[in-house]
Amino acid sequence: MKTQKKIVSRINFNESKKITDKLEIKAKANSYFIRDTELNGFWVRVPANNPDGASYLVNVKPQNSRKDIRRSIGKTSLYKAKEAREIARSWIQQIKAGADPKEQIRKQYAQTQTLTEAFNQYIADRTAAGKLRERSIKNYQNDMTGRLSPLMNKQINGISEELISNWYKRNTAVAKTQTDRAFRELNAVLNYQVALGNLVNNPATIVKTLGQRVTIKPKTTFLRTEECGDILCEMVTFRKNNPHLIKQTNLFLFLLLTGLRESTVYRLKWTQVTLRDSITIEKTKNGEAYLLPLTGLLNDILEQQRQDTPKECEWVFPNKHLDGPTVDPKKSLNRLYKEAGVNKNFSDHDIRRTFASLADLAKVPFTDIKHLMIHKKSDITEQYMQSQQEKAQENYQRIIDLLASVTPIAFHKDESGNEIISYMTSDLMRFIFFNKGKLIKHPNKNDPDFLMQVSKEFYQERTKIDWD
User: Which of 36, 130, 140, 213 has the fewest CB atoms within 10 Å distance of its CB?
Assistant: First the structure.
């Protein structure tokens, strides 16, 4: 049996009359149009049950086209009928000639917008597309009020090559690195305006054309192994004396033991963590996902953070208000460095370089180091090497063992009066920092002589992890 189609009729109330300021606009159940009897193609549209929303518009066919083009001029409350009719007359002529008056208005506005407006548009569009990270957004905003501030109120079509060239030359004489970063941001924003059709050319290209671009040497600073050992040794006392800074020391340990980028660690959420198993990083800087298998010590850090963080808090390393990710821990960790006698300031990227150095010293293969650092695979063969992921936990543990082996735990003298230093093991590190691992089950766990003997004999197992 065939079902009968229900026919729905749409009623449009179309009226023809001269559009004037005193035109009576009534509310009706359906939207309707009032056609102007003086100018063909000039209308008023009245929405259903909303006479206050009535607006002027034009509706006309371009030459050699069968399709009507409709463009709204604006609400009837914004224009007098005479003004709207003159605008409509101009727009109708443009549409018939094949031009789009709305697009012309948009371009006129775009070409007169300031660099500040162009920056804000770029940041908004790129953020919405997931192309800008929080750190990058902050850099853009800082440079808008910093190095780039003399240019920000200028219209983008009034920024000349000479202006940018002089700005770059003047500022690089004072601060090369900061100026070059600001220049890269300026270049990206102006390129975006060229792509949108708001600029014909990017005036910032003159810097490269004239050979003005400065060479910025990449930083190579990192912590030496003995400095790592001194910091970890001092951390034992530091945590006891500053229990309110345990989160910051946990953050330092986590950065040092994983080599992850600070943006990944600072914004780590509990939804990414499976305790006693792994951490899932869905999107890294190189665009790939990464599964980080947990070692015993890494798991200890996370379990302590989970214990000290309210259940409703989503961040692994939250800020002091527990409503967002941690802020820069530099101030607290600089104190730790100073008390450890390390003449450096904390830098999260220094820690990342330190991790790579430690991995090399621990004899982790180069391709495995690239995997742990989550660097983009340059060789197609690397993409098929599952062994890198399978060996990841073992490689992380090798780095932890190396770090423990350079961390002093006790200073004493032998029978001849010679100075002897006992060093930690990863088991001792777990026991001392977190009271975890297989040593907590040993009856002599509180005996200093036993712990010293453990250190000398490198007490550990190569079997499965004993979580607690």
Answer: 130
